[in-house]
Amino acid sequence: MLILVSAYRAKANVSMSRFEPSSFINYEKLQSNVDIVRKRLNRPLTLSEKIVYGHLDDPHNQDIDRGRTYLRLRPDRVAMQDATAQMAMLQFISSGLPRVAVPSTIHCDHLIEAQIGGVKDLARAKEVNQEVYNFLSSAGAKYGVGFWKPGSGIIHQIILENYAYPGVMLIGTDSHTPNGGGLGSICIGVGGADAVDVMAGIPWELKCPKVIGVKLTGTLSGWTSPKDVILKVAGILTVKGGTGAIVEYHGPGVDSISCTGMATICNMGAEIGATTSVFPYNHRMRTYLEKTGRGQIAALADEYSDLLVPDEGCEYDQLIELNLDELKPHINGPFTPDLAHPVSDVGAVAEQNGWPLEVKVGLIGSCTNSSYEDMGRAASVAKQALDKGLKCKAQFTVTPGSEQIRATIERDGYSKILGDVGGVVLANACGPCIGQWDRRDVKKGEKNTIVTSFNRNFTARNDANPATHAFVTSPEIVTALAIAGTLNFNPETDFLTAPNGEKFKLDPPNGDELPAKDFDPGQDTYQHPPADGSSMKVDVSPQSNRLQLLEPFDKWSGKDLEDLRVLIKVKGKCTTDHISAAGPWLKFRGHLDNISNNMLIGAVNSENDAVNKIKNHLTGEYGGVPDVARHYKANSVSWVVVGDDNYGEGSSREHAALEPRHLGGRAIIVKSFARIHETNLKKQGLLPLTFSNPSDYDKIRPDDKISIRGLETFTPGKPLSAVVKHSDGSEETLELNHSFNETQIEWFKAGSALNRMKELQH
């Protein structure tokens, strides 16, 4: 059966046109593909295998081997947030194609800075970002892409409310796209160039994921929340333990978690490097679909429910078991999301490590935790304090996930409670979670602690202050710690003191999974593209400092790369925040030359342990990383970056790959890569290479020259070599591995995947 996705919205004034006629569920096709693959493999399939293999371009002939082969897939739709959509749409324009081939949407959520409060911050953002919003709106209209205006909400909440459904495959230009796994979808974060492939109707490539099973038993209760599941799993698997794998939750414990709670768990799976995460279809998902106006889909999912759960007897590459009866509330941090502590221990651990105990700010919301249930549970904690005459000791901010959530929590009184306890309701946007926070209560460099219900807590991520110790936890624990004003408070056992001297304990939080009265959709913020946008104009001013049309990168010369300079040898953790910072730099995401001025300015130089201070080997002087790179480029000197483990973890931002390419980089040589970043580098014609022997990292010196040999016979599975010339005249040869397949080698030869796409059009 084929069914159009048409939604019955809660209010008649809300646009029905956000659901494109071409956006359909074809469970029959999915079932047919799964049957073909199951027969070929002759074994039971996991849920993620069913959905992924169900979207194969050629299920009859595709080579399928978990962790080894590349799959050619046909995702159902594309979603882009405004910071990454700029470059994605610039690349799509550059492709010369007239219209997107699959349903696609742009979501304005990243460019709104938190400063005063929701209404004023949104008005200021519309003014400051008018040029970018106009570009995205007109490009969307011209090329057939739906446009969610600023103020509509965070991309992942909008997807959950409108576009995710059991069995769909969606790719999004944001690393937290896996949020949709809470609704039984396979939603994968990618770079903009991958989105361009799908929008162009080209099969999308993904290395066949391994599958990590997480079996849940028991029941969530008390102060323990869905967030604690992923905080615990992050502590077990670490920031790279999920790389190349889909995390699949199953077991009897699943039914005790709400649909939005499952989305929280899948969302933060990005922090363990997982390709995505997914839950099996159940009654919680059915109820959520019905409440969000998609009862038809729920009925069809019921009919095909066997397709939307794992086969009995399926095998996982790794299995983790968690008993929810025994799981305690957790808080992870600082500086990395996998440093897990039970809330009961974190105060003592903080004292031992010299982390500031005073909580300066508590922040709830973000794409990870801004559901109706999250806000209800936080409000239930806040109300207990208010009833005793207490307010937050710390500053407190609230970020609703969408316009629908904002309107509904306002109607149902949650916003008033959270405001009365001291909270400031921010715009329906990413805000402080991605560094869009004009923070003024501490000076840069001042050591302090914040607690958030966000997903990442890398150094300086939220407020650009490297001395801020950020901890991630559930919204209800954030609220309790903001009221207590200290990390050294366990709401399960500790007492608060009311103004009248009465000591009292907080009861465990409670909150409705979904509103009793249906959702209030609030203002309509969706712009549907016209049926024919070919006459629309998309203007990019040559004088703009926010937007810049792209010039194609140069093709490979056909020869080995000789005498490449080491631009920087990076020491330790190097996330995409270190490579291409967000916060104030977000404004340049549509202008490659301007944003390249932030390239690697957060990375630690192994030579001197300094940030943004490297030696220019042409002049002998020290300078900033982008400045030295520009000087090398101007003098026709190509260069490499040398890095450590899990290089490029974190955000999907492809600017972290575009910038080194733009400034003359040729290769990135590291111990290991995060998945999305490695693919993004390949897409832009760079060589992501790994030391065959990780200890060879120690052999590279900052003043070395490196030649990469073997490119003339560049083939899948065959290592390249690096001839390293030291300044003392000695040389050594190191083996470098790569994960390029034949298609990706063509990208390298053409200079980029986009160049190759254009070659194939002629």
Structural class per helix/strand content? alpha/beta
Tell me, rounded to a whole number, the average pLDDT: 94
Overall 3D shape: globular
Q: Level of helix content? A: 25-40%
If you compute it from the alpha carbons, what radius of gyration comes out, rounded to the nearest whole angstrom? 25 Å
Q: What amount of the residues lies in strands?
A: 15-25%
The residue ranges in which pLDDT falls below 50 over 5 or more consecutive positions are 1-17
Annotation, overall tally of beta strands: 32
Main sheet record: 7 strands, mixed, barrel
Rounded to the nearest angstrom, the distance between the terminal CA atoms is 38 Å
User: With helices defined by DSSP (H or I, 4 residues minimum), what is the helix count?
Assistant: 23
Q: In which order are the strands of the major sheet placed?
A: 24-27-28-29-32-31-30
Description of the structure:
There is one protein chain. The chain is α/β, with parallel strands linked by helices and 762 residues long. The protein has 23 helices and 32 strands. The longest helix has 16 residues, at 372-387. The radius of gyration is 25 Å and the shape is globular. It starts with a strand and ends with a helix. Pfam families: Aconitase, Aconitase_C. This is Aconitate hydratase, mitochondrial. Keywords: 4Fe-4S, Iron, Iron-sulfur, Lyase, Metal-binding, Mitochondrion, Transit peptide, Tricarboxylic acid cycle.
